[in-house]
Amino acid sequence: MKLVVATPLSVVVEADGVAAVRAEDGTGAFGILPGHADFVTVLAISVLTWRDGAGGAHHVAVRGGVLTVRGGDMVEVATRDAVGEDTFAALGRAVLARFRDEARAEEEARVSSARLHLAAIRQLQRYLESGRRPVPLAPTPGFAAPPPAAGDRS
Predict the structure, then answer these.
(1) Rounded Cα gap, residues 48 and 77, in angstroms
(2) What gap in Å lies between CA 119 and CA 89, rounded to an integer?
């Protein structure tokens, strides 16, 4: 069998000579052997494991996705994100490193956003404290201007 695991940005796994695939969907774990009937299922966030012809096990963590079996010899997985390694220990380290990198990037984005908001607020504050009068808005065509407020001497 051939196994392909792809994300929108890359092909994470492309393996020929696959003897068996183990995956997990919403109903639980299942296995695929050569000659399996065609089907499609939605994967849970899980670890997909496959064995090569020599019996070696390989693993890829997937963030959900769609698994398709075609012709009994082609298994394809389309997923948002995947990390592949040959051992569970290495996979665990790789997934944790990815989570740390993503958390760091999210924190940097939050800090940058907060800085932009703060700069905008400070700019508005400086403008308001400068004593300038606001510029009146031009009337919108088709709409009447609101009547002046009581006691307004404009």
Answers:
(1) 10
(2) 45
Convert the pLDDT of each residue in 18-68 to its tens digit. Answer: 999 999 998 999 999 999 999 999 998 888 999 998 888 899 988 889 999
Residue with tokens 């090569």: 52
Neighbours of 56 (CB within 10 A): 10
> What share of residues in the chain are helix, strand, coil (percent, to 5)?
25, 40, 35
CA end-to-end distance (rounded Å), the chain: 82
141/145 Cα distance (integer angstroms): 10
| % of the chain surpassing 90 pLDDT | 41
pLDDT at 43: 93
Domain coordinates in residue numbering, the chain: 2-86
Question: Which residues, 6+ apart, have CB-to-CB distance to 56 below 8 Å?
Answer: 86
User: What mean pLDDT is predicted for residues 65-74?
Assistant: 94
Q: What is the CATH number of domain 2-86?
A: 2.60.15.10
